[in-house]
């Protein structure tokens, strides 16, 4: 498997509240995480950093090898981390109201888990076609699902950044997760909304299909988001999977 990731402050924000990490457990299973912090001052940066660091460290101690075990681990560790971030926010006034989105991929020899909370996304490029595997937990996506706005209206809605689920905001939260069988040449994209609010899915697909390195693809996507305005921090994580032969 090959990986590359890059995070960028963008053109508007004063600091980067995105966090990113890549980890391996005792059995060689891989975990990729992108988190997009929310909250005033630098509180979002604290929340996203906590989520990535804590989940990564705990993952490195595990020995599980199956996707069923991975899904159970994710559910448990996310609930614990939610309480940890809440407790930290309540202990320090300047961290009050902090939270973070989360999108992660657990990579097994013949499958992968894609999981998310909030509006950071996970995509799969397979046989030349890009598909979004995660669903945004956002106010605008709820309107879209109810048919109250069109996809084009959703793209430019004034409340586009209002998320309905995150880590650290409420006592109850839940991560969406699903296991997918992997194929040779699958390419996974994890990203914060600083990319997807600036770059269309068609543009994402075109870049991912280019004949260049994963690092170059990451840089191209960051550049496109900045050229489109770079209104938020931008994080891109690419994983090229090689499925083990049966």
Automatic annotation (TrEMBL):
It catalyses: O-phospho-L-threonyl-[protein] + H2O = L-threonyl-[protein] + phosphate; O-phospho-L-seryl-[protein] + H2O = L-seryl-[protein] + phosphate. Its EC number is 3.1.3.16. PROSITE patterns: PPM_2. It is an enzyme of class 3 (hydrolase). Keywords: Hydrolase, Manganese, Metal-binding, Protein phosphatase. The keyword Metal-binding applies. Residues 2-241 form the PPM-type phosphatase domain. It holds the Pfam family PP2C_2. Its cofactor is Mn(2+). The keyword Disulfide bond does not apply. GO terms for molecular function: metal ion binding; protein serine/threonine phosphatase activity. This is protein-serine/threonine phosphatase. It comes from Ligilactobacillus equi DPC 6820.
